TrEMBL record:
Organism: Streptomyces calvus
Molecular function GO labels: hydrolase activity
Protein's name in the database: DUF402 domain-containing protein
Keyword annotations: Hydrolase
A Pfam family matched in the record: DUF402
Database matches in SUPFAM superfamilies: FomD-like
Coiled-coil segments on the chain, per record: none
Residues annotated as domain DUF402: 52-159
């Protein structure tokens, strides 16, 4: 690759917002944006290792993240440093908004984990979602979030999560 800026990948700043506050922000390589779906790639942006018991996110992991402007979720393909697929981490979010080099996503607490072989499908943080107060504050958004989790769960259990990413 030469020093020509045209040869460098475009970067965006991913901003994850939760309960009105920025939870994390990190730079990511813009892989594609077709006007509906934005795909970015970034190394694990957390501090150190995060061990969930069923998967570990750690330095060297690479996330290929798919965000939609018309869907209430994002799907993140997680690979180890050696390229081995760990699985897919799905966040239930409001539809993503991209403005220039910023991609803003609002996390709605619900998550889904799907192991690489598809045999372990876990709904996560339903207790946090219930405690968030979203159902009372914004019933339409709460219903959309639950429907999105149900859709991803059904796709994962039918072995069809990858269809979203193709």
């Amino acid at each position: 690759m030469s020093a020509n800026s045209a040869d460098r990948p475009a970067l965006v700043e991913v901003v994850l917002v939760k309960a009105g506050r920025t939870k994390i922000r990190y730079p990511a390589e813009l892989v594609a944006d077709d006007g509906t779906r934005v795909t970015v790639r970034a190394p694990w942006a957390g501090d150190g290792v995060r061990d969930f018991g069923f998967v570990r996110f750690e330095p060297g992991d690479v996330f290929t993240e798919h965000y939609w402007r018309d869907r209430w979720y994002s799907v993140k393909e997680v690979r180890a440093a050696d390229g081995t697929l760990k699985g897919h981490y799905c966040d239930i979010t409001r539809p993503a908004e991209r403005s220039g080099d910023r991609l803003v996503v609002e996390d709605l607490d619900l998550d889904l984990w799907v192991s690489a072989d598809g045999t372990d499908v876990r709904r996560l943080d339903e207790d946090e979602f219930a405690a968030s107060g979203l159902e009372a504050a914004d019933p339409r958004a709460a219903a959309a979030a639950v429907a999105a989790l149900d859709e991803l769960d059904a796709r994962a259990r039918a072995g069809r999560l990858g269809v979203l990413l193709g």
